[in-house]
Structure formats: C-alpha cells, structure tokens
Specification:
mainly alpha
C-alpha cells in the first residue's frame, strides 16, 4: 500500500498539468474555463507539488540528503543519533531493558 501512495504522489503533478490544460481550453469548457486568478493559484500549486515530488525522489534515492527543516523552522535541526531511534534505548529506561 505504501508503494502505491508513493507512485500516486509522483504521478500527481502530471495529472494536474493535464487537468489545467483541459480546463483552460475555452473551446472545450466554454464559460466554465478558468479565470486568471484561479489559474495563478492552480499553477503555483502545481509548481509546489513538483518541488515536493522532486524532494521525495531525492530523499528516496539518497536518504537524508533533502533535509529542508530549515525552511520551516529557520534553522537546521540536528540529526538524532541512530541509537535514539530504538524504542528501548536512550529513553531513560533501566539498564536491564536497554540490553
């Protein structure tokens, strides 16, 4: 199931571009074609989706290389040491449980 969602996310920008081309065709859509404001919002959304898809692809090929936490927080978030990812290690548990 996870792989199908990754493929859906990777294909989504192409589907959105095709939809925008169709919905902007006045011959096809008539009065229901997009106006300039909605077109601007839609194309910005497509560009953001393409950027996120590229980041996802880079992260799949080279894990950890697309650290963009600084965009959200304004500073780099230090990486957590691998031993901290284990649920029983580094969590302040007794030494018997950490072995």
């Amino acid at each position: 199931m996870f792989l199908s969602q990754v493929v859906n996310g990777a294909v989504l920008p192409f589907v959105l571009i095709f939809m925008l081309i169709l919905i902007n065709d006045r011959k096809l859509m008539g009065n229901f074609a997009n106006g300039p404001t909605f077109n601007l919002i839609a194309w910005i959304t497509v560009i953001v989706m393409i950027a996120l898809t590229l980041l996802m692809t880079i992260d799949i090929v080279n894990p950890g290389s697309s650290d963009v936490s600084w965009i959200i927080t304004g500073r780099r978030i230090p990486k957590v040491p691998p031993q901290m990812h284990h649920p029983l290690r580094g969590a302040g548990l007794s030494s018997e449980l950490q072995k």
